């Protein structure tokens, strides 16, 4: 049967084990304490890390050295549907253990791409590899037409990290592009987009205003992608067994290497703004 349909005729037992959160790491010279809050709007049974405290211990007792606090909000907010919300780390602040250093300072501030937000967690709009994608028409059913699961760069970039501001005032900007490999099978000789993103460029602006840029190229001198995949079986979502056709939402074959990686690159060219480069 085609289509994304619920089947309640064969209930599957579900056991959920509550996660264990580390609270303290103790060494002969000190300890690290972790604090949490159970106030999440996206996954109400889960905790979020709110602070880390570094302490030293010795002859004078336990002394607090630094305290890091984690500020959160949510992608997809405002929404009353928890499935549309995803926890977002806005910034990390740091404070010292003395009166002079007790005022929290922004240690890292993070910026994300919110041009596209990820869909609800139970929506079926994902590509062959599980990344957010787009279907051409409303109501398109990838279980009826598995070829709809091609990647979409704009959707894959949804809520990705794009910028970091450091304590010193310097900032980082990160740009991405879709992964690809050069396909030669089936009479095709072209770069083919596949799931996930690779870093396209990194730009650092120092506190002095100086800008340092690095650009990454994943193609050879002829324009062919240097990407290599373990197998092209990621497209094989339809199997016919004893005359019955089964459609899968992901490849039943193993398409990843032992490290869980689908694609790797035989060479990457790193170029600098002064004209230099490394391959």
Care to describe what's here?
It is a single chain. This protein is mainly beta and 279 residues long. Helix content is 1%, strand content 43%. The protein has a twelve-stranded antiparallel beta sheet, with no helix packed on it. It is globular. The mean pLDDT is 92.
Give the structure's gist in a few sentences.
This protein is mostly beta strands.
List the helices and strands and how they pair.
Blueprint lengths: L23 E4 L2 E8 L10 E11 L2 E15 L10 E11 L8 E8 L40 H4 L4 E6 L4 E13 L6 E16 L5 E7 L9 E3 L8 E4 L2 E4 L15 E3 L3 E4 L4 E2 L1
Shape: globular
How many helices? The count is 1
Helix content: under 10%
Q: Whole-number average pLDDT?
A: 92
Strand and helix order: EEEEEEHEEEEEEEEEE
Poorly predicted ranges (pLDDT <50, ≥5 residues)? none
Quaternary organization? single chain
Please outline the major beta sheet.
12 strands, antiparallel
User: Structural class given helices, strands, pairing?
Assistant: mainly beta
Biggest sheet: strands side by side, in what order? 1-2-3-4-5-6-7-8-9-10-15-16
- Rg calculated over all Cα atoms: 24 Å
Strand content: 35-45%
Count of distinct strands: 16
CA(first)-CA(last) distance = 50 Å
């Amino acid at each position: 049967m085609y289509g994304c349909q619920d089947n309640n005729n064969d209930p599957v037992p579900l056991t959920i084990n509550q996660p264990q959160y580390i609270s303290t790491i103790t060494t002969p010279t000190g300890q690290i304490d972790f604090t949490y809050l159970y106030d999440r709007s996206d996954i109400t049974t889960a905790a979020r890390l709110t602070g880390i405290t570094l302490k030293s211990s010795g002859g004078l007792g336990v002394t607090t050295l630094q305290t890091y606090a984690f500020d959160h909000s949510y992608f997809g907010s405002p929404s009353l549907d928890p499935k549309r919300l995803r926890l977002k780390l806005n910034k990390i602040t740091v404070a010292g253990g003395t009166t002079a250093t007790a005022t929290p300072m922004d240690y890292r501030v993070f910026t994300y791409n919110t041009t596209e937000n990820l869909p609800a967690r139970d929506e079926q709009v994902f590509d062959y590899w599980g990344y957010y994608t787009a279907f051409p028409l409303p109501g398109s059913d990838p279980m009826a037409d598995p070829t709809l699961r091609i990647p979409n760069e704009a959707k894959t970039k949804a809520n990705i990290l794009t910028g970091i501001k450091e304590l010193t005032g310097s900032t980082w900007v990160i740009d991405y592009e879709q992964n690809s490999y050069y396909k030669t099978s089936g009479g095709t000789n072209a770069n083919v987009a596949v799931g996930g993103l690779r870093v396209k460029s990194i730009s650092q602006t120092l506190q002095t205003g100086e800008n340092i840029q690095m650009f990454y190229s994943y193609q050879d001198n002829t324009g062919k992608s240097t990407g290599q995949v373990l197998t092209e079986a990621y497209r094989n979502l339809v199997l016919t067994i004893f005359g019955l056709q089964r459609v899968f939402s992901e490849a039943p074959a193993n398409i990843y290497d032992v490290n869980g990686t689908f694609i790797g690159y035989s060479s990457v060219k790193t170029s600098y703004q002064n004209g230099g480069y490394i391959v």
